[in-house]
Every structure is written in C-alpha cells, then in structure tokens.
Amino acid sequence: MACVEQDKLGQAFEDAFEVLRQHSTGDLQYSSDYKNYLAFINHCSHVRGNSNSYGVLPTEEPVYNWRTVINGAADLYFEGNIHQSLQNIPENQLVQPAVLQQKGGKGRKKLRLFEYLHESLCNPEMASCIQWIDQTKGIFQFVSKNKEKLAQLWGKRKGNRKTMTYQKMARALRNYGRTGEIIKIRRKLTYQFSEAILQRLSPSYFLEKEFFYSQYVQPDQGYLSLNNWNANYNCAYANYHELSHADC
DNA sequence: ATTGCGGGGATAAAGG
DNA sequence: ACCTTTATCCCCGCAA
C-alpha cells in the first residue's frame, strides 16, 4: 500500500515537472532544476533558522532552541499516537524485500533510504528504533540501543546479502548532506529532513505550510523558473491529496 | 585500550 | 559502452 502511494507521489512529481516544461521557454533539465530547487529550499531553511541555527533568525520566526524542542517532544509524541491506530502495518510487510515488492511493476523506482526512514518514523512499531524530535521541522533521532535493528531491517528491505549496519547506513545519510536532502545536526544520532523532502513525503504536512519562500524570490534574481516549478509541484500534490488519505 | 559516533575516499550497483 | 546517481565498504579521528 505504501508502495503504491509512493508511486502516485512520484507520478505527481513528474507531472508537475511536465507542466513546467510545457510552460517554460528555455531549456529545462529535470535533474539540474530539481537540484537547484533543493538547494534553494535548503538555503531558505538556513535563512529561517532551524534548530541548528547559525545565528541568523528572521524576525517573524520564534526563537527556537533545544529546550523548546524537548518540551514539545511529549506533545509530538502524542500526535504520533493518533496516527498509530491508523497505520498498523504488520511486521512482515516491513521486512519484505523491495525486490519482491517490485515484482510485476514496471519501471518502479527503488526505495530510497530517506523514504524508508520516513516510513519508519510513521510506524509505531519502529518507535524503539527511530523517533521524531520535532516532526514539523523534520528532525528525527535514532535510538542508540536499537539503531542497529533498524539498519538491519533496511538491509533486508533492500534484499542485501550482507547485513546492514548503522555505521554504513549513517554513511548514506552523510551523502544526503551533499544534496541537502537530510542534514546532520549537532545532536547525537539526530538528523533533519530538508523542507523539500518533507513536502515530498508528507502531502498533508505540505498543504498546511504557507509559501514561505515566495517572499525571498524576486523575478529578476533568476529564481522565477524555480518558483513556477514549485507552484506546479504544489498543484500536483494538492491533486494527489484529494485522491488519497493524509499520511503522517 | 575500548566504545560510540561522525567524517569521507573509494568503489559497487543500478538505471538511463 | 559510458555516465550519473545512490548505496555500500572500509578506514580514520575524536572524545568519553
């Protein structure tokens, strides 16, 4: 089921790109424009001042520090419990190798690590391995005691012959730092999804967010195409959202 | 010395 | 056959 939904997401993503291509006068390249988009979104995240803030906080953003995160964690955990009743995924589905899940599907994209992590974060059975610290900001943390278990499940899911370890999985996470899809934050075993990834993985979350970046975009700054791209991207996900229930 | 965590080069694997 | 992207393997440093 989750697999099917991700296909829809991917399709919506590509539809959005196609719309932009049709309305664009210049050359448009999927990967490079998406990368620019990611870089831009991540740039905005820095400007806004996230948990690992670099001392630059916009005036409209509340001051944010780890104390407030910790204090808010209990509430967030409660929110998570609401979804637990809706998402009771049997263990055997979690361990099912991606190879088997892909059987019969044509051109199905491989499951990406960050998708698996997000899926685990939404699965109450995995709460002993990985948990949200601040779901709205996409900050999550591995549980030291059981992080190896999560890594092993990831390896099984991919159908690896050798067992996956946290060390190797964390290396993949560090690779995400290059593209900004997931960044490491100072806290032990704690990482953060980028805005773009959060939007991509959580349509419901995305729909509740304002277009915060629009105020930073000036047409003469070369960001126009990114802005258009994003608008179509948003539209596609709104359409998707109407057809599907909200996920975590 | 050991352990836990994080960094990064090199390379395999897979898809276009 | 080549290129790019992503994941994996492996070795390193640092601090408790």
User: What pattern of helices and strands is seen along the backbone?
Assistant: HHHHHHEEHHEEHHH
What can be said about the biggest beta sheet?
Answer: 4 strands, antiparallel
How much beta, percentage-wise?
A: 5-15%
The global form is globular
Mean pLDDT: 59
Radius of gyration: 18 Å
Strand pairing plus helix content: what structural class?
alpha+beta
Distance between the termini: 14 Å
Helix coverage percent: 55-70%
Enter the CATH topology name of the domain at 113-205.
Arc Repressor Mutant, subunit A
Q: Report the strand count.
A: 4
Number of helices: 11
Question: How would you summarize this macromolecular structure in one to three sentences?
Answer:
This protein is α+β, with helices and mostly antiparallel strands. It contains 11 helices and 4 strands, in the order H-H-H-H-H-H-E-E-H-H-E-E-H-H-H.
Feature tags:
248 residues, alpha+beta, globular, DNA-binding, Arc Repressor Mutant, subunit A
Can you walk through the features of this model?
This protein has 248 residues and is α+β, with helices and mostly antiparallel strands. It has eleven helices and four strands; from the N terminus they run H-H-H-H-H-H-E-E-H-H-E-E-H-H-H. Strands 1-2-4-3 form a four-stranded antiparallel β-sheet. The longest helix has 22 residues. The chain binds a DNA duplex (16 and 16 nucleotides) through helix 8. One of its GO terms (biological process) is cell differentiation. One of its GO terms (cellular component) is nucleus. It is found in: Nucleus.
